[in-house]
Amino acid sequence: MLDRFKDFWQGVVLMPFVKLFIRLGISPDAVTFVGTVGVCVGALAFFPRGELLSGVLFITAFVFSDLIDGKMARTLGRKSRFGAFWDSTLDRIGDGAIFGGLALYFAGPGDSYLYLCVTLWCLVMGSVTSYARARAESLGMDAKGGLAERADRLVSILVMTGLADIFDLPILMFVTLWALAAASAYTVVFRVRKVYRQAAVLDAAADAEEKPPAA
């Protein structure tokens, strides 16, 4: 859902940074790496100590690198297979750090075994959602769609975590985690069913080609 705003952010808000980094000779891969390190530091240094708003603000300062590196690559005319692999791999690390940091918060100052489990569920289902799409595409099939794209997951949990800390309303974070848990589970099931239907058609076509012609 939030992917529709990418053009606005990349073309208007973040373009000065794109031009500056290109002028300085910084590579898109370096921006991806620094952004991921920043996200991990913010999530794992602040969240486990209960400093939720500070963590959200710190993460936000780096999370836009995911938009900047892609715009830089397109501006430079670079289409790198390694760059695509690098970006996707570090995305998983950043996502894991954010939900892992929240899990540590619930294991510590948040003191909630229930929401520790819900957060871990969101972490695992988020990874499976991304893996299902990547694996399907490697097999020549499409697994796009569902309710919980990566941008939706990150923006919703970061915004609601920050607001929960500002207004001392942890219910905002709790409701968001439950919504993400349900949406991620639905998305995984949706993608599995979508790939199953495509695989059935492809396998049937392959079987038909292998059968010897009738005498």
TrEMBL record:
* TM annotation in the entry: 20-46, 52-68, 113-134, 154-181
A Pfam family of the record is: CDP-OH_P_transf
Which amino acids does the record list as binding Mg(2+) 2? D66, D87, D91
A biological-process GO annotation: phospholipid biosynthetic process
Q: Which UniProt keywords apply?
A: Cell membrane, Lipid biosynthesis, Lipid metabolism, Magnesium, Membrane, Metal-binding, Phospholipid biosynthesis, Phospholipid metabolism, Transferase, Transmembrane, Transmembrane helix
The residues listed in the UniProt record as binding Mg(2+) 1, with positions renumbered to this chain, are: D66, D69, D87
Q: What class of enzyme is it?
A: transferase
InterPro entries xref list: CDP-OH_P_trans (IPR000462), CDP-OH_PTrfase_TM_dom (IPR043130), CDP_ALCOHOL_P_TRANSF_CS (IPR048254), PIP_synthase_PgsA1 (IPR044268)
Identify which cofactors the protein needs according to its UniProt entry: Mg(2+)
Q: Which Gene3D superfamilies does UniProt cross-reference here?
A: 1.20.120.1760
User: Which pathway features in its UniProt record?
Assistant: Lipid metabolism; Phospholipid metabolism; phosphatidylinositol phosphate biosynthesis
Q: Which residues form the active site?
A: D91
Q: Share what the entry says about its subunit structure, partners included.
A: Homodimer.
Query: What protein does this entry describe?
Result: Phosphatidylinositol phosphate synthase
Q: List the lineage, top down.
A: Bacteria, Bacillati, Actinomycetota, Actinomycetes, Propionibacteriales
